[in-house]
Amino acid sequence: MLTVETTWFVFFYLTLFLGAIVLAWLGSEAYRWKTGRRFRVASLSCRLCGMVFLPSKTESLAECPRCGAKNENKNAVCRSAKK
Ligand SMILES: [Zn+2]
User: What is the mean pLDDT of residues 10-29?
Assistant: First the structure.
């Protein structure tokens, strides 16, 4: 019969439990880093009020939702350039 001491039993389950927590934490950090990077790349800062917003990918002049100023969208996908 397999005999396991209580200390090894506690050590094994504690390691398993903490390992699962660390893996979940690393996964959430990786997801946050990935989505944050995507937002930083696609976001636009208004030249008048400084508000950061996500413009549409197709409009080359994005309108600020706060002040209504037109801002140049350098990340806009130009439809005529694809042809
Ligand atoms: Zn603005």
Answer: 96
